[in-house]
Design a protein that fits this description.
It is found in: Nucleus, Nucleolus. The chain contains seven helices and no strands. It has 214 residues and is mainly α.
């Protein structure tokens, strides 16, 4: 009888991955497998568990990203409006050019470069993170926020200059998914240590607050 072809783990949904993990564990726990088949099933189980973690992390990261986007939607809207207004004002002044010295033009161009970085900071701030305002007087008193803000501005400035802003956004998203995966894995380990069974594989929940301050 021909051997049934196994579906690629990457093509499986979260629910199908969870079911196959449970089924594979039951087969391994039976204890009567030939050595070569046992190794094959153990490898399959590892691949299934890795793919489940990856898919759940991606799904949870997307949820966190949407939550944070909504949470800071208004403050980012107001900051973008403020930056855009100044960009338009200075651009108009520069184009008009009346009674402007070379020093004036250089100063305007320098300020415009800063504003373009600020604009992209607002638009492309790391996904799923607590937004650090450009103009909040409260946040500006926190040295940690000042440091983080400057680091992100520098990353965005460099990405603009090298024309790789989209790559930077993808990098931020990948970093978020990695951190979410680590939190999910840690929660799974703690769950096992506490004595809970993994009968509900794939339904493990993480407190939303765990991500808001990433």
């Amino acid at each position: 009888m021909p051997k049934e072809k196994q579906q690629s783990v990457g093509a499986l949904t979260i629910s199908r991955l969870s079911k196959q993990i449970r089924d594979t564990k039951r087969i391994l726990e039976h204890g009567s497998l030939p050595p070569n088949l046992k190794v094959e099933k153990e490898r399959r189980l590892k691949a299934l568990e890795d793919e489940l973690l990856k898919k759940r992390a991606k799904k949870r990261a997307s949820s966190v990203e949407n939550e944070m986007r909504q949470k800071y939607r208004m403050v980012k809207f107001l900051e973008e409006k403020k930056v855009t207004r100044e960009i338009n004002k200075l651009t108009k002044l520069k184009n008009k050019g009346t009674n402007l010295s070379e020093a004036d033009i250089a100063m305007i161009e320098g300020r415009l470069k800063q504003l373009y970085v600020d604009y992209n900071y607002i638009k492309h701030f790391p996904v799923g993170r607590k937004y650090i305002s450009l103009y909040s007087k409260i946040e500006s008193k926190d040295p940690n926020n000042d440091k983080k803000r400057q680091e992100i501005r520098e990353q965005i400035k460099e990405s603009i200059e090298s024309m790789r802003i989209n790559s930077l956004v993808d990098q931020y998203r990948t970093e978020l998914e990695k951190e979410v995966a680590e939190k999910l894995e840690k929660a799974k380990v703690n769950k096992k240590k506490s004595g809970n069974s993994d009968a509900n594989e794939g339904k493990l929940n993480i407190d939303r607050d765990d991500f808001f301050d990433i």
